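Ticket #4471: structure export looks truncated?
Reporter: QA, pipeline team
Priority: medium

Steps to reproduce: submit the single chain below to the structure queue and open the exported record.
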Amino acid sequence: MGMLVDGKWQAEDASGFVRDGQNVRFDSGFSGCISTDGSSEFAAEAGRYALYFNRTCPWSHRAAVTRQVKGLTEAIDVVLLEPAMGEQSWWFGDSGEYHDPAIGAKHLHELYSASKADFTGRVSVPILWDKQLGTIVSNDSGAIARMFNTQFDALATRPELDLYPSALRGDIDELNEFIADRINDGVYRCMLAKTQADYEVGFDRLFGALDSLDERLNNHRYLLANQPTEPDCRLFAALVRFDCVYYGLYNCNLRRIVDYPNLWDYTRDLYQLPGVAETVDIEKIKSGYFTMIGRGGIVPKGPILDFSAAHGRAARFP
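Actual output as written to the record:
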């Protein structure tokens, strides 16, 4: 896939950064924190930050969903990238549809090098860009989502929605890790597996996790409460991609999400929350996955998925 080494793009992965069925994620690299109390150089200010993401990446998606459900669309800008990776990872493409307003970059790795001249690591989305200081604050999707939830309430139109309430933080952290390991990373373990044994381990863990979450959702509207929390945003990003991408392209084909009565209703419930539908473009998502280098470029026409159909969960769990 390629990566930055000492701030320079190289086409080969360096030792310790090779993705396979065992190793999916690596250290993000930028871990700045926005604060409201003056303890950080990054203050929570309207119009100062931009979230860079694309329609394809599920890690991007959960940060975008958090921005929407908290009502931060006026406070935090977005910059979209080309859905499909280019030869140098994520980029702005050649169509003219996407562009970088910060430094006129063609590839996302240019913003990484502009932020840290000797950066070594993978180039991932999302990134949170500080327009005032001209640097990446963070490229950790979980940290970005949590900053949106906790540090921007004075600028949010829905500050009352707390995705990380203090009474549930232990349960949230545990469920976040479970979903990240078994599902978010699980689908990639199936796709990246080099042996049948590795594939089957990832496959069984993935569907065991989906089965258990479907059971959980038989008794709760959302995973932990009667309002969404962080694990819901994390899980939604995987569920909305599952039937149209992971089921076929990633060989995760035991069951579709539409085959799960609770997970399918729950996916539609989350999709219909204010602003969330704006973060989903199934055709762009499919295009991003199926037209990446080495995948042939043929985008499937199906499946037909009606995320706007009635789900009944509000009446079931008043």
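Status: closed, not a bug. The export was complete when the record was re-opened. Leaving a note from the reviewer for reference: The chain has two domains: 3-155, 170-316.
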